Amino acid sequence: MYANAPFDVLWLDEGGNISRQQVVTLNRASLRSTSGWLNKLGAVVMLPVPILLGLFVILLQPLEALFQGTAATYFEALATSLREYRWFVPPVTLLTFALAAWCRRRHRRYGQTGGVVWFVFVLLLGLPGLAGYLLHRSWPVRQPCPSCGQRLPRDRTACSVCGVEFPRPVANGTEVFDEPRAAQSASPSAVTDSDSRQSNASGSAT
Q1: Which residue intervals of 57-172 are DSSP H helices?
Q2: Concatenated DSSP letters of 159-183
Q3: Alpha-carbon distance 74 to 60, whole Å?
Q4: Per-residue pLDDT tens listing for the chain (206 residues)
Q5: Which residues span the domain enclosing 117?
Q6: CA–CA separation, 167 and 157 (whole Å)
């Protein structure tokens, strides 16, 4: 529906002829009373995803205003859209920036690389992006380093701050060890030579 635009209302008789004609201008407030809360509801639904909210406020809402004839230019429609959603955009921006900063700080505490990429990821996607970051991997336990005291993940052999190796856990009898590397790296020819020597020795003994 077009707001603040004149409409010709026609009355037709039984023969299909125009019996009455009247120009009516629809009230903009009455038109927006229903669509206004729907738009706000859509904005609330999109709050966790800042990139969608930004596209809605900056692009979709102004284009809709141009299509409906409520604004003469895009910049006029953009100004109206920003004014209508001024209570939504700043809080969402601040909240998303705080979540992205927390994500990057956590990434650095765990000694991981690519913190800037995850910062931008959470900044664009908000709460869903943060959930994806937390679920994309299993997070190791963080314990204080016995040398420098920094709380670091124990998924490595040495401290990433001071470089001192972590002490090995105390054996409790439930450990499973791999085969010695020397046995694993033995070549087939060496094994064959050993078998042949054992066969010759047993033959000479008989």
Answers
A1: 61-68, 74-84, 89-109, 115-135
A2: -TTT-PBPPPPPP-S----PPPHHH
A3: 11
A4: 444 567 788 888 888 888 888 887 765 544 444 456 666 666 666 566 888 888 888 998 899 888 888 888 999 999 998 888 888 888 888 989 999 999 999 888 887 888 899 999 999 998 889 999 999 888 888 888 877 877 777 777 787 778 778 777 777 767 666 655 554 554 555 545 555 555 555 555 45
A5: 91-153
A6: 8
Return all residues near 58 (Cβ < 8 A) that are at least 6 apart.
78, 81
Q: What's the token pair of residue 169?
A: 């856990």
Is residue 66 domain-shared with residue 130, that is, in the same domain?
A: no
Looking at the structure, tell me whether residues 61 and 116 fall in a common domain. Answer: no
Distance between CA 136 and CA 42 in Å, rounded? 28
The two tokens of residue 20 are 């009455």
In a domain, 134, yes or no: yes
Residues in the chain: 206
